[in-house]
Amino acid sequence: MTAVPPGPRTPVDAVVRTAQYLAGIVSYEGLWPQLGRLVRNFFGADVAAFVAREGEGGERFLHCEPDCPMLAAACAEATAMVFESGFLATEAVRIPAPHEVILLPIGRERQRTAYVLIAAHRGSTALSRDTLDLYLALAGLIETTLDRIASQHRFLSMADNVPELLFQFVEHDGRWVFSYASGGARAALGVEAQALIADPELLFAGLDEAGGARLREALHASAAGCRVHLPLCWRAPDGGLRHLLLDAVAATGEQGRPVWDGALRDISEQVRLEEESRRNLLRLNKSMEDAIQAIATTIEKRDPYTAGHQRRVADLAARLAAALGMPEEQIHGIRLTAAIHDIGKIHVPAEILSYPGPLPEIEFALIRTHPQVGYEILENVDFPWPVAEMVLQHHEHLDGSGYPRGLRGDEILLGARIITVADVVEAIALYRPYRPGLGVDTALAEIERSRGARYDPAVVDACVELFRAQAYCFPETADPGRVFARPPAQRKPEG
């Protein structure tokens, strides 16, 4: 508890020295006795007391300097009036000698006066206007002090109870040191705040070489307003590995030196959950791909003459999507869609699929239903890509001549346009039940002839470049010579 110095000589000196003294009060501990002695020494009061509002209409004496048992009863009515009105009041009382009393409202909580200062001066002479003005100035200084202490108390309470290290870094003699570290250091790092302040190398020593270099580099980019958001791996003194996240903003401190205000929190559990979620997603994707492959295999078992067709279309479609610069995730979706693009053929009798000659019109119309059937099978499956829609559109043409909806131009998804070209090239180039393979040259000639009419020009160009400049070959082709053979066509090339 700080001793109150001797009283000032002038009223102005009283206010100045009061402000200086109050600036040194940083906590509630011993606050009211100190304020009582200050009022007596600096303002000449014979008795100084503080009363707090308590509950609905209740009052409680916080401190009286010196002890004066009669003061509370003598000033009870005036004190209640000041609490109610929020205005200064004066009156004459006997405690037991005559005293002139001033009652000052201090602070407000929820629009009500929080405290009343009672200052009693011995004698029966009314207090002057100048004295009242001095007390009003004192009330303002006390309110400011109470607000500051409350703010500091709230900050320190939160800082020590939130599970994050709140800190201020200051550069000192070429080293970064903690000028402040909150009690959250225990939760974030497992060390005490005072240990960090005493030895900031505790933090840097736990970082690997790359992490320490990133942190120091970030701290030296200390232009005011600069922000840092930096994930770090930190080895605690107990040997445990923690994942930390540092958020800080640069500011200008004392003497113009750079400082960093920020927070450091332990995100190890978040990282663990994200990693677990990533593994679960990988397992889910693997299960989905296995299911798709099982569907594709089932279709191929029913149609042995086109075994591997969907797999080859999927490989070519993925290569075309990559050549067009599509993101990896979209390429993956196109590959999976192409791997089951003919799933609707499960609705077509196997004897029609393997029919060795030209199909009658009714049977051919049945085959043309497979995009719609495929869509209906897949539309309620929650894929991360528009798989069902691409399956539905893989026989649509830019000029509207395709089926089942006769879509045109950009109405057709790019993924579907890619699968269409891959499907046509594979179907023409390789063997079918009703004819031998016509070869890649014939397939490329077909898509070039209909470039911009049926087929997307960019996709056609990428396909021609892939085969002719990059010597692409379909995977799992048992007889490569058959791919390039060009025997006479027995049926109009499909597409």
TrEMBL record:
Gene3D superfamilies reported for this sequence: Hypothetical protein af1432, PAS domain
CDD domains attached to this UniProt entry: HDc (cd00077)
Residue ranges constituting the HD-GYP domain according to the UniProt record: 284-479
InterPro entries in the record: HD/PDEase_dom (IPR003607), HD_GYP_dom (IPR037522), PAS-like_dom_sf (IPR035965)
Molecular function terms, GO-annotated: phosphoric diester hydrolase activity
A Pfam family it matches: HD_5
Protein's recorded name: PAS/PAC sensor protein
